[in-house]
Design a protein that fits this description.
Elements (H helix, E strand, L loop, with lengths): L1 H41 L11 H30 L5 H5 L2 H22 L1
Length: 118
């Protein structure tokens, strides 16, 4: 009975969390749109948020990927240290993929910024 419940909970969570996240995103967008329309109806001037530049998008993606990868590697490193199982370091090695992609984004940020100055 215990294994059945664990499987059911795993399926519900793996499907329920993304659906809840999508619904929350939809509701927030809808509320923002309604708020903007109400402000426009009252005659309030609403400034449009400018789109971030290519350099800003690359910098943000690079920082997020690098910090996430470093946290992932540190987490599995601590788990390997606490449990005393050196095989856990193999899981930490998977953090090298987002780390390298994040470093690539940061290099792209530098190149885009250098091109915009020239």
């Amino acid at each position: 009975m215990g294994g059945d419940v664990i499987g059911l909970v795993a399926v519900i969570l793996s499907l329920g969390i993304p659906i809840a996240a999508l619904y929350t995103y939809y509701r927030v967008r809808k509320l923002r749109t309604e708020e903007r329309l109400a402000a426009i109806a009252r005659g309030v001037e609403i400034p449009m948020a400018p789109e971030p530049s290519q350099a800003a998008r690359s910098r943000r993606a690079g920082v997020l990927l690098v910090s996430g990868a470093v946290g992932y590697i540190i987490m599995f490193g601590l788990i390997a240290r606490v449990t005393g199982e050196p095989d856990t370091w193999a899981a930490a090695a998977f953090g090298l993929l987002p780390l390298s992609v994040g470093i690539g984004y940061l290099i792209d940020f530098r190149l885009v910024r250098r091109e915009s100055r020239a």
